[in-house]
Amino acid sequence: MAVARRRLSVGLGLAGVACALAGGCLLLLGPVIIRQQVIKNVRINPSSISFQMWKDIPVPFYLSVHFFEVLNPKQVLQGEKPVLSQRGPYVYREYRYKTNITFHNNDTVSYLENRNLFFQPDLSNGTEDEYVVVPNILMLGAAVMMEKLPNFLKILLSGALAGLKQEAFMNRTVGEIMWGYEDPLIDTINMLVPGLIPFKGKFGLFVDFNNSNSGLFTVNTGMKDISQVHMIDSWNGLKKVNYWRSSQCNMINGTAGEMWPPFMSPTSLEFYSPDACRSMTLVYEQSGKFKGVPTYRFVAPKTLFANGTDYPPNEGFCPCMQSGIQNVSTCRLNAPMFISHPHFYNADPSLVSAVEGLHPSKDQHGLFLDVHPMTGIPMNCSIKLQLNLYIKHVSGIIQTGKIKPVVLPLLWFAESGSIEGSVLTQFYNNLVLLPSVLDYVQYIFLGLSVPLIISAAVLMAMSKRGAAEKSPCPPSTQSKRPPSSETTPLLHDADALSQDDAEA
Hints:
By secondary structure, the protein is of the alpha+beta class. The chain is built from 11 helices and 15 strands. The protein has helices at residues 2-42, 51-55, 73-77, 137-145, 151-163, 174-179, 184-192, 349-353, 362-365, 421-470, 489-503, and strands spanning 61-70, 84-103, 108-119, 131-135, 169-173, 212-220, 232-235, 268-273, 278-290, 293-299, 325-327, 337-340, 368-372, 377-391, 406-418. It is elongated. The two termini are 58 Å apart.
């Protein structure tokens, strides 16, 4: 029994030590293994798990467009405040895929990302055939652009506008405004002021957005330095753009806005937007979860579109007006165009009060990115921007009437998407569930090692105690007779005599 107990204690002790070693190894090596797997699979490499996701984005993206219809165009021409009504959304399914993928020897890769948009009637509140009253963007934009030209040129343009029956506001279909319409005004303006509008053919706000690409990006593959993966090396061969007035504002920073380097910290992220002609910085807002996947949420700071007075680093984007809008005329053919958050969210209140019908709200109009910090892959995002046109009365061009200077919203759009379906399941299993299982297993091993080692110690102590109790006691030294010896017979005789005397 004692032997069996001793063997059991030894077995439990060895099992406890093994569990402790296994738990300790997982505790020390588990994070290293997971980190190496993440690094291996987020690099831009044909063998990585994320490569196909990067090449042909499987996430369903949607472009939702909301137009601002002008309800009182005649009154605006008389100097009254514009009254706007939001129309839409008109929703388009957006497909993105990369072509011309070329790997270079300096651990970079170049590519073109193509975009195709398809109208989704079932998700839209209206059709592309609906008519909307909006500003005549070409005419009012050209009028502001010609304001400082000689009067005779402006009078000539005004006469040409009258002959073409051009008015300050137009009634066009959603499809025409989005994808373009033929307008003889383009040829007329190019004839009177060559180069003022350097394009021909159709004019539409999104005419260059569909069946097109966003330029040639060259980004880091992360093969040597994972902290640089997806970071832009150049765009269209440029390290900087030349749209703005300062070197800082012209910098091409961050990524292309699809993925970021892994192991993110809750601070900020950057990306370059060809549509906005600039780099943008979003700031950390909060941690959360998207369908079980831990995320960091990044949002636009109030300084993103602040003017140079309120935020000096933005001085390079000027000439500026109120905070909350950015002049993009230098990258939009010098047209008096401004971008902002929808409904002038986070903008100077004077912009909202200059028109009627705007109701800025963070929930509806604030942009956000929910990114998985371990991999740098966005789980859920919605990038929202508003296009605005600066209009005013221009002397010599009678079609501008008595319009008071105002930054007039034209439309706002949201590009939204989230990982779902089999992609989300694979992502969750490999990058959330598996690390969680390893975490649990390591603590289970460590937890088991303690009772096993304690049990082994207790059994060993009990075994030793039982063995001690069963061993025979040694005889007392006081009652022990001296051993007989063949060499001392006299002692035996003396003892016998003494006993005889005692009996007598």
